[in-house]
């Protein structure tokens, strides 16, 4: 009888000892927890503001920021760059056909949204006299969008540049229309 | 030629490798020496088991006041002569083929071997006890004599002292000459 | 009753045995798939790492030796920058290593380490690394882990597409990043276009002893030649260079060199170049470049100034060079282990482009040309392109291979490594890096035989990833396990300087050959002193030569008198030890140079110019032994007009 109890206790002990060994801390998935958004997770209130920080603090760009977050491409906008971002304001998003923004913000459209947003970023710092009439700006999607000058007004594609803000990692041009990539 | 004669001849020829193979080996092990330090003792010289071992042992030993390992010893002069003499004698006895002479050779070799071991012990005693009074590090009452045969802990080192390849061949040779005697006895009984 | 008891005991033991073994099995099964990252990078005390990683120090000019998977740092090998720790560039023996045609240069920008190969497999003999600023290539001997040769590259500027070793270490190359006037001359910068040239230098390596010699240069159009990769296997005999700025802009390149849709990959047929060389189709050009060689036998380096280079002109030598149009300022140029695919990372491009070597040969045969540039045929993009990885990330830079049909590309802007499949071009997996990854390395991952277990990603930016150290924070490397379908981040460790590229190799290919000490009897240094009996001090005018030895735990001699103010005192110090890991150092108070750190059996020289009378101590700088603190000595310095005679002693003798 005694031996049987010993047997059962040992069995229980062995089984329990066996179990937790498989679940160990420090699995590599944990490493990303600290910085879920990559470089965008870096907390730094002292340095000059980067493109994402400027956009996030602008009341005119709440839709854009929401879209960037939905597409999970924050880290691109805080990268050392240099980047030129053509930032459509809220009105530009509002001018899209009804329901477009809502559809794009759905998780299943993440890739598509990211692609559209990427079409607003160009590697390099294009501002001032570099925005020459006729110069084609190469966007991160691989598309070329031409610059057009009309008197003092500067256009990228059909979108008019409303304002220009320097960022630590490039430059932001606020525009009034969305730069939709050509359908492929 | 009888089997016993062949054994006697081979047995005495097995002394010859002593000219190229070490008779004895002392090895010193310590954690900071992943490759242990070793002294190979030949009948003509002492040599490091690996290159630089003699110098490294001397460097370590000088801190406790031990003398340098000798490059010349009178033993290195007369050991080769004794070995050659014993080989020649063994060959002659082998060709003569008298069993009593086989036994005599074996006894003589054993006596000489014992004298050699005693001589080795005397040298080790002197080497381990005769310390320079100006030594930088002193452990009063500590002697650094390596074991005659076997393993011994000396400070942080573990010293091993055992016969080496030449030594083992010597023992094999002696065993063959002894067996030559017994084979000869049998040969006489059957023959 | 007794019988049943026995039966129970037996069953009990069997059950335990079964549970224990089954537990072990399930444990080891999940171990391979799912055990913790910490466990997989932990190398227990006293155990060895599986791989060596030679990680470039970038602007530090040096090469770091780490172990993988632990990331532990073993050594920093001084290559292009002086190093006070090892007296590199400070002692008389190694000063010639840093000589150039511009004179002695104490610093360099080390970029791409690459290992010698035999039959397309890394062999662990030498590591080559390029210097970007004052164009040079260095060779490091992997038995001593010391820089043993540096060759300067003339007619070049910004030696970036370098060194990259061919299948049998026939050549290392040096492609110029900055086109310059060749020969250099005073001319207007805006005359750049059409007048500046890019020299592609082929440095021959002696298969026996590794010795480098400048075999020939190909004078290319004035583009920027960025990265390079030799053909492998079927494409052996070719060398591929990415180019940017085919616009030939000479100002504001960030805009002006990014205008064209496509730049080029230059495919150079070096076997053909060898034929042209043999046929005498070269011109000999006067140049000046230094060739510096360190000999273990003398423990000393010599510097020789070379005077000519043989130059080939591709515009008049058909079949030597072809251009492969490649999208948007390609950076990385990487050839897969089979030699079929030439993968280009257009750093501004949205895609990663792969060309086919087979298609390239056919396009050449069919003359599928799309014009020419400076007499060099441009192959049609469609005729050579094998495929593209579409939209894998932003800012692709470099690609390595695992030998199992997969490629791994780094993306600088989107901070990630992307795994994709050769041939189908589909993306298999992506993992973030922290942050802005530049190069990556898989041991052997640029050769015919990758050891595809780990991937090391090297990051340019770390920001908040480590404890802060003021404005300058470390750069980092990250280790990924790539044995499964998905990559797994295992480890994050800081690096020395900026790690541009690295070379990894199984430790077994190097470990056994690593030298333990130098044999004293083989020391042919002209000032070697091989025993304490041979020590001496010799005066030659104002030069005083001290022939000194060191051994645990004293210098010989350790008392020297008769030195005068204004003398140049040469300490020629020989370490008499013949034991592993017993270096000794020596430092002299007030000497305007570094210490010496002398390996067993080695001789090095420290120069000291005493300025004040007095008695000045010197001491051993490396904690060599229990009586290290006692390892010291004095030099008496007398006024210039003193008549103290030169004398030296140890323990009064």
Structural class label of chain A:
alpha+beta
Portion in strands of chain C: 35-45%
- Principal-axes geometry of chain C comes out as globular
The helix fraction of chain A, in percent, is 25-40%
Count of helical stretches of chain C = 7
Q: What is the CATH class name of the domain at 50-175 in chain A?
A: Mainly Beta
* Radius of gyration of chain C (Å): 29 Å
| Main sheet: strands, sense, barrel of chain A | 7 strands, mixed
CATH superfamily of the largest domain in chain C: YVTN repeat-like/Quinoprotein amine dehydrogenase
Low-confidence stretches of chain C: 19-33
Biggest interface, chains and residues, is:
A-C, 46 and 51 residues
**Number of E strands of chain C:** 46
Q: CATH fold name of the domain at 50-175 in chain A, please?
A: FAS1 domain
Silhouette of chain A: globular
Percentage of residues in strands of chain A:
15-25%
Give the helix level of chain C as a range of percent: 10-25%
Layout of SSEs?
The complex is a heterotrimer of chains A (184), B (191) and C (653).
Chain A: H1 2-18, H2 51-56, H3 62-71, H4 74-78, E1 83-88, H5 90-94, H6 100-104, H7 110-118, E2 121-123, E3 136-138, E4 144-150, E5 153-156, E6 159-167, E7 170-175
Helix pairs in contact in A: 3-7
Chain B: H1 3-13, E1 24-30, E2 33-41, E3 46-48, H2 53-64, H3 74-96, H4 99-129, E4 150-154, E5 157-163, H5 165-190
Antiparallel strand pairs in B: 1-2, 1-5, 2-3, 4-5
Chain C: H1 2-34, H2 37-41, E1 51-56, E2 63-68, E3 73-77, E4 99-100, E5 103-104, E6 114-118, E7 121-131, E8 136-141, E9 146-152, E10 159-161, E11 171-176, E12 180-181, E13 196-205, E14 212-221, E15 224-230, E16 238-244, H3 253-256, E17 262-269, H4 270-278, E18 283-295, E19 300-312, E20 321-327, E21 330-335, E22 341-346, E23 352-356, H5 357-365, E24 369-373, E25 376-379, H6 381-384, E26 385-389, E27 396-401, E28 406-411, E29 416-421, E30 427-432, E31 437-441, E32 454-459, E33 475-481, E34 488-495, E35 502-506, H7 508-511, E36 536-540, E37 543-551, E38 554-556, E39 559-564, E40 568-575, E41 584-588, E42 596-598, E43 603-608, E44 614-619, E45 632-638, E46 647-649
Parallel strand pairs in C: 14-19, 37-40, 39-45
Antiparallel strand pairs in C: 1-2, 1-35, 2-3, 4-5, 6-7, 7-8, 8-9, 9-18, 10-11, 11-13, 12-13, 13-14, 15-16, 16-17, 17-20, 18-19, 21-22, 22-23, 23-26, 24-25, 27-28, 28-29, 29-30, 31-32, 32-33, 33-34, 36-37, 37-38, 39-46, 40-43, 41-42, 41-44, 44-45
